[in-house]
Structures
1.
Amino acid sequence: MSTDSDPNGAANSERPATSESAPEAHEAAAEKGLTPAEMDQYECRACGYTYEPSKGDNRANIAAGTPFEALPADWRCPVCGAGKRQFSNVGPVGQASGFKANLDYGFGVNRLTPGQKNLLIFGALALGVLFFLSLYGLR
């Protein structure tokens, strides 16, 4: 945790450090005794902002490890200002998206996390562009 001062000169130790990496933040939240359900991410349906309990919300001075249900009733999305009712549970960080029954279909692609899917899609696209450009060397 970092210690910042407000304009009045008083120290504010409630603010989490922004230099914590995601695994360290998850470990810190686990040390606080959060259950896996409390670690679920919530996504704003209006703008796509994702609230992660392991990181908290620096703009509203919400400490890391604060579950979504424990946020104040007047808390709003820091990006678009939507209320808590506009957020939907998207599950824990790094979990494959989709219904559990459908994860076994396909060539194993359904079990990939969203980040892995992005790497696969854009990596294949870049490789295709590279092959296309290499055709100019076949004179």
2.
Amino acid sequence: MERGGNDVDERTQRSASHAVVEAVASAEGVPTDALCPPEYEPLNSVIDPDALDSLFADRPDGRHRSGGTVSFVYCGYRILVEPNGSVTVEPRSGLEGFEDS
């Protein structure tokens, strides 16, 4: 990937939290079911997965949400979730101005 991260860019029926787990597992080279304690921190230790899913779920009338992003650090990566379903995963090392929550 050009920016040094892994992008997952597809709008599907999967939730934003599941897309994050898939993207981090891919970056780590492990299956999604291996992304669990004790080797990996659970996603809910850094962000509420239900809240994340709600932010990026389609509106009640079926329209896609058109704005807003969420970024956070998870498993040593900077995660960026966008309303189009895109999840960008970048190694945290060398990222200026981005702190753990």
3.
Amino acid sequence: MIARIVADVFPAIGSRPVASVEAPERVRMVKAIEARGALDIANRCLQMCSQVFRYAIAHGIGGKSQPGVRQAWLENYDTCRAHRSLAVT
């Protein structure tokens, strides 16, 4: 888990305070991971980031809620492509 964050999340948004990271930046980060063909990792990174942001908001550390990030990314997410064993032929 930490290796995934170090490799994929920190280069995009890791050095900045949680409150300064906007939703479009998180979507770009996930789409960059997706562009490598790592759809499952993109989904997991988005989940981990969402947990961190929810914690920060709940404890007054972060900014405002950004509920549309997952929906913006999932618009083009094809579960059959992510799970090739489920692909219908």
4.
Amino acid sequence: MAAETQFQFHVLAVDDSLIDRMLIERLLKTSSFQVTAVDSGSKALKLLGLNEDEQRNADTFSVASDTHQDVEVNLIITDYCMPGMTGYDLLKKIKKDIDLQESKSLKDIPVVIMSSENVPSRINRCLEEGAEEFFLKPVQQSDVNKLKPHLLKSKVKEENDQFINNKRKGMEETDSPDKTRAKI
């Protein structure tokens, strides 16, 4: 029998705690995810191809021309409470992002927030800002199992967007003035 190539979802895990980062990485890898782990929100943004433009205001980001993302990130899971940029700040910056590539935008990447503190107002604020889930630490395998539907929904949306863009390009080519104008 021929071996099937299975698509492997890529998760970016962001946590300043080495122990928590290793735990989430192990849980994700056990569930057959490809994982990249970083220890800060700013490193996550850099990996995603965004750099804070220090000459503009703090909410403005520019695409880093020298940073190339080799693997597409399908989901981001981040700790809420981190020094510097919090997970909530990272969530807001990702969800406010403008389109970086043809049809793929960072704001379409599902974001999951983790925290050891069960604060209902914090949880609601994250969900209202666009987080898909809010997990209480320590994260468990049952929590990781909740990620698949968000990844699949994101993948289907991405494929639909790609199909629509391809169809739109095809229509533009057939409707272009050069092809519809009568030649004299």
